[in-house]
Structure formats: C-alpha cells, structure tokens
Write a structure and sequence with these properties.
With 184 residues, the chain is α+β, with helices and mostly antiparallel strands. The chain has one domain: NADH Oxidase (3-Layer(aba) Sandwich). The protein contains seven helices and four strands. The protein has helices spanning 4-11, 25-36, 55-65, 92-101, 105-123, 136-143, 173-176, and strands spanning 47-52, 81-88, 127-131, 149-158. Strands 1-2-4-3 form a four-stranded antiparallel β-sheet. The protein starts with a helix and ends in an 8-residue tail after the last helix. 28% of the residues are buried.
C-alpha cells in the first residue's frame, strides 16, 4: 500500500549533516504552523517554541548546550536553525492526568507537535533531528527561560547534505501488532 502520506513518512529521517544554507523564514513559519495545529490533551496546547536562526546566537547556544557529556550532539551546531521545544508546566489537567493515569500527557502533546514540525519540514525539502541530549541548565540560562516552561527537546532544522538512502530498519507489522488479544 502506498500513499502520499506514507511516502512522506518513509522519506523522513534524522539528519545530522546540514548544508550551510539559511532556511527561509516562511518555511520555518510553515513548520511552526503545523505544530500549532497539533491536537493536545484537553486542548491545553502546552507547547512554546523558541526559534534560533541568528548565527551568532546559535553559536552561543551550541557552545553551551553541546559540550562536555553532551558533545555527542554537537553535530546540531551546524544546523542553520535550532528550535527549543518547551512545555508549559503546571497545567491543572495535565497534573490530574498524571496523578490518575500515570501518564505525562503534556509530553505526548509535545511529541505530536514536534513530529508535525518534522513532517512539515520533510514536505518542504528540509531535514530535522530531535535532540534530547543537551545541557538544559545552560540553555535555560542563555535565554532566561522562566520556570513555568521546561525545555523538553531541541529540533535541528535545515537543508540536509545529500546522502545515499539506506532505507529504514523497522520491525514488520506482524512483529508489533495484535488484534483483539495479546499475542498471535
């Protein structure tokens, strides 16, 4: 089975090598619009996005966020855009949901919004990479992020260096799906 959406999803990959080419503001805004339209628990829309596309500010951020034990993600410093994906904390419905269900619904919401960014970027010919490994304390300090927001992750965004498509290693549907009962 093939469809334009499945083609888009199968073409999306994590990009770790970016071209030294700025990303047009319209394309960044299109990605953020896709995230804005994401669903969220109780329509809380807990996401906030801080876009860093100024080279000097991006360099300052990279020097603080991707050093020491976080050096394995220093490739992100070469992305022309870094998006800090933040979550508003202390939303009553999220707190209640966490207490009753044991699920951090706001993190699910952030994941949906972030993947909307990644898929919109793919459609626009851009590459992305989710970054969870960075110095959060130093990043908060650079931007003076208030306590009511938590930086959940960063998203590297830009034009990908061309590379050979090696395909995706994914488990088959039979390995990950059950119908009507656990097990086959």
């Amino acid at each position: 089975m093939s469809s334009p959406f499945l083609d888009l999803v199968s073409g999306r990959r994590s990009v770790r090598r970016f071209l030294d080419r700025p990303v047009e503001r319209e394309k960044i805004l299109a990605c953020l619009e896709a995230a804005r339209l994401a669903p969220s628990a109780e329509n809380a829309q807990p996401w906030r996005f801080l876009v860093v596309d100024d080279p000097a500010i991006r360099e300052k951020l990279s020097a603080k966020a991707f050093t020491g034990i976080y050096a394995m993600t220093k490739f992100a410093a070469r992305a022309p855009v870094l998006i800090l994906i933040c979550c508003r904390v202390r939303i009553r419905t999220h707190w209640i949901g966490k207490q009753i269900q044991g699920v951090a619904f706001q993190l699910i919401d952030i994941g949906i919004a972030g993947e909307h960014i990644a898929l919109q970027a793919q459609e626009l010919g851009l590459g992305t990479c989710w970054i969870g490994w960075f110095n959060q304390r130093r990043t908060r300090k650079i931007f003076k992020i208030p306590r009511q927001y938590k930086i959940v992750c960063l998203m590297a965004l830009g034009y990908a260096e061309p590379r050979e498509d090696r395909g995706k290693k994914r488990k088959s549907l039979e390995e990950i799906t059950w119908f009507n009962r656990i097990g086959n």
